[in-house]
Amino acid sequence: MSEQEAAATNEEPKIETPTENNKEVKENGTGESAEPVAEEKEAPKEMRAVVLNGFGGLKSVKILKKPEPTLNEGEVLIRVKACGLNFQDLMVRQGAIDSPPKCPFILGFECAGEIEQLGEGVEGLAVGDQVVALPEYRAWSELVAVPAKYVYKLPKDISHLDAVTITMNYTVAYILLFELAGISQGKSLLVHSVGGGVGQAIVQLAKTVPNVTTFGVCSKSKHEALKTANSPIDHLLERGSDYVSEIRKVSPDGVDIVLDCLCGEECNKGYAILKPMGKYILYGSSNVVTGETKSFFSAARSWWQVDKVSPLKLFDENRTLSGFNLRRLMYAQNGADYVQKTVQEVFKLFQDGKIKPLLDSTWALEDVAEAMQKMHDRKNVGKIILDPSLEPKPKPATPAKGKDKKKQSSEEKKDSSEEKKEEEKKEEKKEEAMTNGDSAGESESKGKENSS
Ligand SMILES: NC(=O)c1ccc[n+]([C@@H]2O[C@H](COP(=O)([O-])OP(=O)(O)OC[C@H]3O[C@@H](n4cnc5c(N)ncnc54)[C@H](OP(=O)(O)O)[C@@H]3O)[C@@H](O)[C@H]2O)c1
């Protein structure tokens, strides 16, 4: 068993408590050092949280006891009942996003729950309100303090679970389709990772417009499940196949809209398949995720593979290129009000029965590594959710005890570090092969997936 599988399945979930040597638990959720506590002061109350101890693999993710947050002006305190796991969380864990915070910090961008306390100056929200929030990190804990501008009151008929299934994914999908792509009757659309959270949101929202044709690409293993779930994809295509030729068989002129969350070589394919007046929108870079930890090579390759297109070319070819990043819009570009309005549109579509979120699975906080592994292994069909009230899954007992156990664990360590080295060598070889234009790396990883 590989190290990452062991992390995901065998390792007992640990709730670690503060100790002298465990420096990170003395820090608050924002990663800043806390003031030394006066001896006579009452110990702060604690809560469970999913903490990233350092950028890297699944082992860097820990369930720790942290001090309950205190409120600043303009913030609300939410008792969390459900959290959304998004692909972006995998990238954050690896340190593969721009300007990440300093470790340790609490992970998560999406949670729903009940307001327990209001900070000074908060208007329009009240204690007891059921809400969903999109904070900048810190969502995966039992309690979170969030600026009110990122908190959305839930209508009565939207549960916490529904809220974290729809809010991030459908808000992104709504902006991509209705704001940026300007989708209208009769248009055609190509969507990557169509079996995932955002992918499903896109095809469902697209089908609220008459006569739209959807082409969806995803791993073959998801096709049956998507058909069974009646997902509104007109042409389901296989990841890694020559999907461009498949699309041209149905629509020789190409498509009107390409929504690309992969980047790298998919950018060029997406641009090339646009009809005149077509729109290509980049909203993710999943292709930079290869192994369990960040690969500088994958990031460089993804950047290098993208053709640089001049506005003169766009002018001649009647095509539009654009990009979208919700995180940047909300936290760095003053987009909170705009997002607030879009979230209300999404709630309305849900209440009108026009969208039906697809839930993949729900996990205890302690099982977050397993949940992340599932997404990394491309096995989720729809959204993955964390529920702080759930009991962790029972883990298989470790048979060895005492000395034998010590011996065994050091052997396991040796085995797994050898396995890891072997994996890393393979990864390097694969990357080398791909730089040289050889597709062996690709077929190797495909073979691995098929055999799993
Ligand atoms: N711009 C924004 O504001 C924004 C906001 C949210 C999400 N996004 C982007 O939207 C995409 C989907 O996000 P999501 O949260 O809904 O996740 P998701 O689609 O549920 O993510 C998991 C799926 O991604 C696909 N995938 C593609 N490349 C992968 C890789 N290198 N490793 C593992 N899986 C890979 C896999 O499906 P297949 O194998 O079937 O393709 C996997 O099942 C991501 O690229 C994300 O960054 C962007």
UniProtKB/TrEMBL annotation:
Residues 11-29, 407-433, 443-452 have a biased composition (Basic and acidic residues). Coiled coil: none annotated. Residues 56-386 form the Enoyl reductase (ER) domain. Residues 1-45, 383-452 are annotated as: Disordered. It holds the Pfam family ADH_zinc_N_2. GO terms for molecular function: oxidoreductase activity. Keywords: Oxidoreductase. PANTHER family: SYNAPTIC VESICLE MEMBRANE PROTEIN VAT-1 HOMOLOG-LIKE. This is Enoyl reductase (ER) domain-containing protein.
